Amino acid sequence: MLFNSLAFVLFLSPLPWRRWYLLAASYAFYCTWSETFAVLLLGLSAAAFVMAQWIAAASDDGPRRRRLAATVVVLFLPLVALKYWAPFRPVLAAVVGGPWAAHLVWAGVAVPVGISYYTLKLVSYVVDVYWDRLAPSRQFSAVAAYAAFFPQILSGPIQRAGDFMRQIERIRPTDPELIASGLRLILFGLFEKLVVADRLGGLVDQVYDSPRAHAGLALTVATYAFAFQLYADFSGLTDIAIGAGRVLGITAPPNFDAPFYAANIQEFWRRWHMTLTGWVRDYLFTPLRMVLRDWGQVGLAASLVVNMVAVGIWHVPGLTFVIFGLIHGAYLFGSSLTLRKRERWFRQHPRLDALHAVIGPVITFHMVVATLVLFRASSLGLAWYAFRESCHGLLQMVVQVGHPSQLGALLRGLHLDWSRRDTLVACGAVVVMESLHLLQRRGALPRVIVAVPGWMRWAGYYALALSILLWAQTGSRQFIYAEF
Amino acid sequence: MDETTLRERLNEIFCEVFDDDSLRITDAMTAKEVEEWDSLNHINLIVAVERGFRIKFTVKEVSNLANVGEFIALIRSKLS
Asked: Within an 8 Å CB–CB cutoff, is residue B20 touching chain A?
């Protein structure tokens, strides 16, 4: 079941036997998707549990490293076989060639729900044990609950083992304030998903489902809308996941930190999907960078590219996502080469520095949005078309529009199923969402909630709930990030 | 190498890597407190320290450091 279906509510009742309850509830939740793959999840959790102790039992570096290698291979095997083998098989066959290609028969079956998330969790667990950051758990239920934890199984956040297991082993009495904050977060997440993301999705799909039927401004608008749809969708899902976790007494790390206001591309990736980028940074980038550290700039470029391509194909094993990774690898490499000089230059020109504080985020935002066509378009050709046309449309907007009403006329000329009321609701919803995100960023939200009188707080909750009822897109759509 | 020289040399390396001559390292200092100390610069720091002290770190050692104090202890253990 998806979070935004009513049945989900039944799972949110707190009980004292937390670890076992969470484990049972998580597997019950998973079985509504697939019992067969629940067995896979259980098997993989058992493998991680046993092999982590096996790694810790080795005291010498050589055997310890070999045991880690074996464990990582075992843990990644289902993910690679089920998600990556089929799409990359033609590439592999072309590379390997000849009679060997005929042997690459395994076509893969369906991709199990959550496998991209729980695989990364279990791998982080065993690597943390290898690095002596964590003692291997003696309780299988803790490891199993960590991997299967149902609020996080669909779309993360990818919490670290130490953090989760510390909480689950130290069962605390129910904290009403935590439950309240969890419910608030769930309400906000539903707002982000149903009012912001799904509505914008209605506009985006009209254009991106058949991009060549549109040109110029239609694609510009759809591309910008997609950026906010993706963000609201994923942020909403994350908020529901974190909120649900809180209701059950578990605190999870955030995934977003107002990323669209990042001053440069490095900062963007520190603020977008933070648990994924943190994972890739700690378990892929840093080790790789260390291995290549004597290769100077080449080592840096290679590490960044591998890192970002991994981020790309983690989402979807496809060419557009590889290109996405290559572009962001290039962005990061270019930016890292020049960042220090840029910052120094701006420090020496204070008036321009003030301007830079505004323009930096705008440029970074556009660097990211430009690559998001690759996330949405179904092929490289369509992505390029969408990008080209979005640029034309943007130029059109900038050059031709002297007055907002002209923009309105231009938009109406697009003949999309999108009224002025839709624009007002969408813009209003985005403003509400971003205001709350910026308050969250400053850490001001808890203070505001406490300081504001009770009636105002409740008016706010009712307003959010009412807007969901009034303006939620009917027919709840699939969460984008649950498909990864 | 005595403690003071170690700390002075490390401080020099920090100033160079993070492009800030006013930086003064303390035992409790972490990456969060230094503006340019991200994952990219972290490796630059490691490489600079390796060259400056003629030692080698492993990935495990580099990933497990909680603060500068632990880093200093690690460097000291490598030098002896």
From this structure: no
- Chain B residue at shortest CA distance from A130: B60
pLDDT digits (tens, 9 = 90+) for A311-357: 999 998 889 999 999 999 999 999 988 888 888 888 888 888 888 88
**B66 CB near a chain A CB, below 8 Å?**
no
d(CA A210, CA A128): 46
The whole-number pLDDT of residue A441 equals: 80
Q: Which CATH number fits domain B3-79: 3.40.50.10210, 1.10.10.10, 3.10.290.10, 1.10.1200.10?
A: 1.10.1200.10
Which range among A19-33, A205-219, A412-426 shows the weakest confidence by mean pLDDT? A412-426
pLDDT score of A10 = 44
Residue ranges of the domains in chain B?
3-79
For chain A, the farthest-separated pair of C-alpha atoms sits apart, in whole angstroms, at 74
Question: How far is A303 from chain B, CA to nearest CA, in Å?
Answer: 10
Find, among A89, A137, A150, A78, the residue nearest to A112 by Cα.
A78
- Tell me the percentage of chain A whose pLDDT exceeds 90: 51
Which of B38, B40, B59 is nearest residue A290 as measured by Cβ atoms? Answer: B59
Residue A473 and residue A196: Cα distance in Å, rounded? 9
